[in-house]
């Protein structure tokens, strides 16, 4: 009974039934918060309206700076904290407002010619391709699991319905999952960004340069493709899963791919530079599978496909020739 009386007394204090000071305390705290940080109350609509009607009074003016004594600051914090308990309402705010939860990030850069596998604190597995930058928390907090990617990575995300896993990639795509496996390709200099789903379901949201957004929902065998020159996101299907997973074992698979995409992949994987001598060669498309093999063999097979030949000085390779072999488009 004593506790109930204390709760009621506190509510009366903050609602202004017994003191204008109580109303000012709450108003000062509430109005000092940015609009996006205003708390949300998990309660019935009737309860919410009733409590807010008591607490928010349009005639109340926030305290001026000179009126904020140390005692008032103490009461402001104590009253807000106790209001949650006494009203029986769950208050949600940004984590750093009350809990001071700090998240320390780690960043990895995988240089050209290298691959890297990581295990995250939630048990999720990540494979990073060459020339990839990945930023992630050393330990995930109590909220959403958020990571940042520039390059290519394959994710096998541990299921946790209470904490969605979000990948921010390419500056414009946000991929959200609960637990699934998928590949994200978001190199800065590529014409396309892709998110290909192997298992589970994935949401991909694209934010345009003028802050418009669009969303696609993906199931296994579907991929989201962002055409960067058009700032356009679309959904497509695919059947060759190996195309998105085999690079983890050093196998590169291309299916009717523009030669520019093939060269970009080879440059990253072998840490070399490749130049084409003619526009005819640049127009070629390539269908090929390169198992883990020495670079010289890869260059021989590529040139055979392109009806061309190569020369090199150190890590700089030059391909020249008549163009695509009719028997090997």
Automatic annotation (TrEMBL):
Chain segments annotated as transmembrane: 73-93
Origin superkingdom: Bacteria
InterPro entries the UniProt entry points to: FecR, FecR_C, Ferrdict_sens_TM
Keywords: Membrane, Transmembrane, Transmembrane helix
Positions of the FecR protein domain: 111-202
Pfam family, one: FecR
Residue ranges of every copy of the Protein FecR C-terminal domain listed in the record: 251-317
Naturally occurring in which organism (per UniProt): Chryseolinea soli
GO molecular function: sigma factor antagonist activity
Protein name: DUF4974 domain-containing protein
């Amino acid at each position: 009974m004593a506790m109930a009386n204390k709760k009621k007394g506190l509510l009366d204090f903050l609602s202004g039934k017994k003191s204008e000071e109580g109303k000012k305390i709450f108003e000062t705290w509430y109005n000092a918060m940015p609009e996006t940080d205003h708390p949300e109350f998990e309660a019935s609509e009737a309860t919410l309206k009733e409590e807010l009607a008591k607490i928010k009074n349009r005639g109340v003016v926030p305290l001026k700076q000179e009126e904020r004594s140390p005692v008032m600051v103490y009461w402001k914090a104590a009253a807000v904290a106790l209001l949650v308990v006494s009203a029986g309402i769950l208050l949600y705010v940004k984590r750093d407002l009350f809990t001071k939860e700090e998240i320390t990030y780690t960043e990895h850069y995988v240089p050209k010619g290298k691959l890297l596998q990581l295990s995250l604190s939630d048990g999720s597995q990540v494979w990073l391709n060459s020339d990839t930058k990945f930023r992630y928390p050393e330990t995930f907090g109590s909220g959403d699991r958020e990571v940042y990617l520039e390059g290519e990575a394959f994710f096998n995300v541990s299921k946790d319905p209470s904490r969605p896993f979000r990948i921010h990639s390419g500056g414009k795509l946000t991929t959200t999952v609960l637990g699934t496996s998928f590949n994200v390709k978001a190199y800065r200099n590529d014409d396309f960004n892709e998110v290909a789903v192997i298992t589970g379901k994935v949401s991909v949201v694209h934010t345009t340069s003028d802050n418009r957004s669009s969303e696609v929902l993906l199931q296994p065998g579907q991929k989201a493709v962002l055409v960067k020159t058009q700032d356009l996101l679309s959904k497509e299907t695919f059947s060759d899963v190996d195309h998105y997973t085999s690079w983890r074992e050093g196998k590169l698979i291309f299916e009717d791919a523009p030669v520019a995409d093939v060269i970009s992949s080879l440059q990253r994987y072998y840490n070399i530079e490749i130049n084409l001598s003619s526009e005819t060669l640049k127009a070629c498309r390539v269908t090929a599978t390169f198992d883990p093999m020495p670079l010289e063999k890869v260059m021989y097979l590529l040139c055979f496909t392109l009806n061309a030949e190569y020369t090199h000085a150190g890590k700089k390779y030059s391909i020249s020739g008549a163009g695509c072999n009719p028997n090997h488009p």
